């Protein structure tokens, strides 16, 4: 059976205590590889290797760094088919999605930051009347930690690693233990691209052991984390007494506000995606749908029909829309929410059941599910389910729509469908979310700030925000 290894100091290593864990293929429910169950000792060796590499890497020219990072982007692009297949098998997502979204974006992440660093500059301030001049030096922080989740494995892993590396830091990174494969392959790509030894170190293992060792390491001075809100709160508690720099990209429960004056067909097609793409396992999915009452019944009928027509099955088949959920535990968690629907006064309008696929009987499949709710305060509408489950509910006024949208602890993204400019601008201003999409969803320009408000996180990634996060600003004041 294939063994994934840690990537430390440019070499592939077994975990020191030789502990291994099973890695499942969600489409079949079978174990298909083993991954290191790394301990604090492995993290320490990864840290030592990163610390050793820091001096040289932080002093390489921007051109040189940019060239190597760009080469990684190019190699990911060249290996798109292989990486997409690995991602689909590891995660259960449709291969078509991995080919068109996950892997191209992983390549873009490196290419974008390879370009961005060449345009990154620091500020200068003349203290007029005082005969003094200030400028800001921006140094890399040192060894930084990057920890990512399973839903968009290589996409989110590289979204952190690329800006960390390009700014001259060295990295100890941990992908999700549920989807380790493409991170493992990335190590090989980094060697091929000529990334010096020790600049990137990838340690595999569980969150509360391996991840915890990264966060608690006294000399890893910044942590960029994407994952659940509860985990984020724990990480903040561990890191705060050590005054670490923290970027936390956490959970979401995003509203999708649909007004009667929208471009209906376009809205319907995109709403299907924002509800169920990647089996609903995207932090940006619009899992709370609110529809203006005058088109509510029509929307309901059309949305149910489109949802029922989605093809669930083998992620590798070209015509599959909905693949497998990422793990058995996650499948059961998502189903447990569906099971409380009636108790909460909800009505299941579509889906709601496990699915058995011929030839893949032990895979983790679930029908895309629409639940009509009467009360927006129910758990189904308040808690992050992170699966192919959406709630729907009508509204009457703009003010009510805004209140419903903002009536959760989360504030990651929001979507609005309307052709009314005044309404768009009003909602853009008052929606409590890090992103407001108007008449679109998941459209990303990598220069824009990305992150959440409220319990969806602290800090922003993307563009110069990420380059600022991974550097330490220092004011130099010269009196003349
Ligand atoms: P998770 O919090 O369980 O795990 C995320 C990562 O953190 C994994 O690598 C895990 O091993 C590690 N981890 C767990 N406990 C840790 C600890 N004590 N110390 C250090 N590391 C630890 O999340 P998940 O189930 O992998 O991912 C799903 C969650 O991620 C959802 O809540 C989703 O909304 C969120 N997410 C957010 C964004 C965003 O950009 N805001 C993007 C994708 C996913």
Walk me through what this model shows.
39% of the residues lie in helices and 24% in strands. Helix 2 (62-78) crosses helix 6 (181-193). The model has no long low-confidence stretch (mean pLDDT 98). The strands form 7 sheets. It has a 7-stranded mixed sheet, with helices on both faces. It has helices at 40-58, 62-78, 80-91, 95-116, 153-166, 181-193, 207-216, 229-239, 264-276, 293-308, 328-339, 379-382, 398-406, 421-430, 463-469, and strands spanning 2-3, 6-8, 11-13, 20-25, 30-36, 124-127, 132-140, 143-147, 170-174, 200-202, 222-226, 245-249, 255-258, 288-292, 347-350, 354-357, 360-366, 369-372, 389-395, 410-411, 413-417, 435-438, 453-454, 457-458, 471-479. The protein is built from 15 helices and 25 strands. Residues 147-151, 156, 174, 176-177, 207-208, 211-212, 215, 226-228, 231, 234-235, 249-252, 283, 384, 386, 412, 452, 456-457 line the site of nicotinamide-adenine-dinucleotide.
Any descriptors?
15 helices; seven-stranded mixed beta sheet; alpha/beta; 39% helix; 480 residues
């Amino acid at each position: 059976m294939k063994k994934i290894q840690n990537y430390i100091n440019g070499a592939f290593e077994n975990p020191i205590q030789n502990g291994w864990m099973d890695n499942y293929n969600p489409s079949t429910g079978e174990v298909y590889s083993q991954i290191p169950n790394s301990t604090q000792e492995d993290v320490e060796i990864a840290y030592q290797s990163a610390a050793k590499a820091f001096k040289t890497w932080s002093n390489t020219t921007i051109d040189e760094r940019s060239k190597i990072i760009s080469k990684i982007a190019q190699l990911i692009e060249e290996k798109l088919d292989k990486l997409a297949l690995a991602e689909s098998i590891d995660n259960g997502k449709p291969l078509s999605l991995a080919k068109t979204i996950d892997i191209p974006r992983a390549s873009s992440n490196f290419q974008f930051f390879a370009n961005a660093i060449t345009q990154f500059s620091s500020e200068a301030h003349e203290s007029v009347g005082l005969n003094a001049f200030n400028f800001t030096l921006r140094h890399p922080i040192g060894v930084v930690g990057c920890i990512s989740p399973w839903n968009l494995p290589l996409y989110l892993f590289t979204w952190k690693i690329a800006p960390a590396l390009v700014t001259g830091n060295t990295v100890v990174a941990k992908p999700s233990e549920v989807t380790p494969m493409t991170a493992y392959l990335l190590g090989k790509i980094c060697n091929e691209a000529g990334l010096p030894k020790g600049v990137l170190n990838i340690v595999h293992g569980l969150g509360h052991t391996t991840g915890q060792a990264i966060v608690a390491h006294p000399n890893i001075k910044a942590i960029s984390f994407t994952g659940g809100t509860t985990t984020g709160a724990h990480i903040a508690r561990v890191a705060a007494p050590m005054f670490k720099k923290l970027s936390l990209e956490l959970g979401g429960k995003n509203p999708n506000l649909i007004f009667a004056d929208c471009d209906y067909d376009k809205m319907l097609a995109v709403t299907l995606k924002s509800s169920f793409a990647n089996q609903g396992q995207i932090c940006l999915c619009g899992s709370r749908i609110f529809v203006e009452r005058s088109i509510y019944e029509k929307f309901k009928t059309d949305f149910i029909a489109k949802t029922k027509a989605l093809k669930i099955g083998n992620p590798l088949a070209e015509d599959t829309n909905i693949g497998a959920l990422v793990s058995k535990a996650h499948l059961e968690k998502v189903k447990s929410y569906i099971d409380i629907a009636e108790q909460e006064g909800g009505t299941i309008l579509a889906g709601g059941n496990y699915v058995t696929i011929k030839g893949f009987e032990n895979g983790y499949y679930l029908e895309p599910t629409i639940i009509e709710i009467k009360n927006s305060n129910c758990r189904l509408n308040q808690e992050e389910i992170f699966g192919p489950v959406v709630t729907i509910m009508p509204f009457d006024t703009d003010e009510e729509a805004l209140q419903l949208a903002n009536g959760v602890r989360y504030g990651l993204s929001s979507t609005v469908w309307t052709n009314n400019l005044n309404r768009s601008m009003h909602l853009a201003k008052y929606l409590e979310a890090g992103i407001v999409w108007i008449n679109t969803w998941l459209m990303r320009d990598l220069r824009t700030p990305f992150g959440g408000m409220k319990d969806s996180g602290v800090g922003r990634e993307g563009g110069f925000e990420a380059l600022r996060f991974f550097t330490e600003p220092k004011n130099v004041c010269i009196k003349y």
